[in-house]
Design goal:
The protein has 685 residues and is an alpha+beta fold. The two termini are 56 Å apart. The protein has 2 domains: 21-203 and 256-286 and 335-373, no CATH class; 427-683, Glycosyltransferase. It is globular, with a radius of gyration of 28 Å. It has a 9-stranded antiparallel sheet with strand order 5-6-7-8-16-12-11-10-14. It is built from 16 helices and 23 strands.
Length: 685
Amino acid sequence: MGFSRHHNRAADAFPLRWSTPREDYSADGNAWSHFTYDMARSRTFRWGEDGIAGVSDSHGRLNIAFSFWNEKDDHIKERLFGLSNPQGVHGESIKEAHFHLDNTPTHSYMKYLYKLPQAAFPYEDLIKENAKRSKKEREYNLIDTGIFDKSNYWDCFIETAKEDDDPEELLFRVTCYNRGSEPAKLHVIPQVWFRNTWAWGYDATKPSITQTGELSAQIKHKELGERFFQCSPSPNSCGKDDDIEPEFLFTENDTNYEDLWGTKNKEKYVKDAFHQRIVHGNKKAVNPQQTGTKSCAWYPFNQGDGVAPGECAVVRFRITKKQNDAYLDEERFDDIMDQRAAEADEFYWKINPMPMADDLRMIQRQALSGMMWCKQYYHFIWDQWANGDPAMPPPPASRKQIRNVQWKHMYLDDVLSMPDSWEYPFFAAWDSAFHCIPLAMIDPEFAKKQLDLFTREWYMHPNGQLPAYEWNFGDVNPPVHAWATFRTFKIERKMYGREDLDFLERVFQKLLLNFTWWCNRKDFDGKNVFEGGFLGLDNIGLFNRSDPLPTGGTLEQADATGWMAFYALSMLNIALELAKHRRIYEDIASKFFEHFILISDAMSYRHGDKTKSLWNEEDGFYYDAISWGPEWTHQMKVRSLVGLIPMYATLTLEPQVIARFPQFKKRMDWFIKTDMRSQVATLQA
């Protein structure tokens, strides 16, 4: 696969890679300190890449991203900065000013804004000031440092568009406006490089990027084939007549062991070479043979005093399959950009043609664009991660037991929707399910693929559990997958006129396994009251609900039980939809109707049981409870969202729907009228 459809785009395609559990090879599992922001300049990533407004192919092999230097910082700005979890006042926190302005589902047009300070970036100030603050104080953010007070910054607009006749022809334009009151110098440095797939001991074949012309470099990869990194001279915005031509630099995407750990480098040219060359003037850091696995085009807008106030520096280049050493046609280039932007306008208007204030329409568009920007190539193979790579030193034996030891089957090589491109750059199963609702509006195929993936055998545990999130795949999140699956099905049917029953049935069949896992693993006593897990809405609980209680006994959770009632109704909904076409699903619908009633009864009445329920009649509220046995239950009277979750479990079965399924109706009537279900007799109209 090439760039034709899913080429991930940073912040987004890859704005944060350091500090993630995938890159953690420590003995104690402290991912935050094992791979830091400062290390990322010099250290090769094992499982992906990061960058500003970056693009990659659908398997993260070839990457394009953007970097800048203001002649004040001690390193190039090539990735977004933020605080790690231990450094932040309230956990990990990005400390940048960047904005997802536009993006279409096919990525035919993308637009991103990065605000680059003209003064030295306040890295140390942000770290030290946040370290002083308590959890009760607000965070200290980039804008609080005063660095934007006099508008001394660059607005760097980064646009990407696809060519008319070939979606693998990519055009890039960077337009940087000097918003300050004085001239300022700027270096714009687009980078093109390959993810390191050769250093680990599996396949030593190296791709290459080699300069072939004054303004172009050849890109060669055994699977992607041949492409060219073709640049255009930039108009001189520094008060000079001559154009600014880029200087191509080349190095290898390999770790600088000498700089990091004082040991000998395996390669002469290493990952951080561009920092050494551009910032520190070390010409020996880059390969004079003009070849490598990592390249950049260096545009220095630093003649005289630099770019005048209000003026802009513009850089254009393309990734193309056509070798052409002639200058880019800037007028045609800009026409294509404008055409793609106009098509994006048309697309988003069709998504919501209803009357709407312009501000609200723009909010919706940028929100949906943000969903597109937060797609990421996600790569993880548990066996290689846990046991190490043949060409690398073996990891500490302890790390095999640190996390995810029960998930040895995990083999992930997909484009996934991330909860947040920087602060949460790894999937969370229930977040992903929620993402699919807005995604279904603009890209139902991608939304369906997400929902299907989590139920596939290389994601779902053999016992039926869905992986929760990277820090702990075995934790438990709210079971919203069935709800999201049915909503996605209905959104596609309503907006696009397509009824994908194969998708609905395929995911439903796998969710039967997951529902059974919940019943077997989280219903401790078989009483239809559920316990355990990180269930999302009350992240600060009385106990760590993923661990055994310090009091002993079992924590019976109002929200876990409410979620399961909700899950049963979602499965009932899907079964009835499928029963319209395949009558055998009537029986399955009956099963989920009855299971919902049993859960509801257990929560509210404990019919026929002497123990207390989770419902408090006096307070009119649901509470968690600790159970030490059949007659020993203690409610914990804490008013929180936990007690509201049971309200989610509602469904209206219209008479015409029930009449359509005689076997379902027959079973439902019998179940409701049976004496043992007297508590739910009021369900009858």
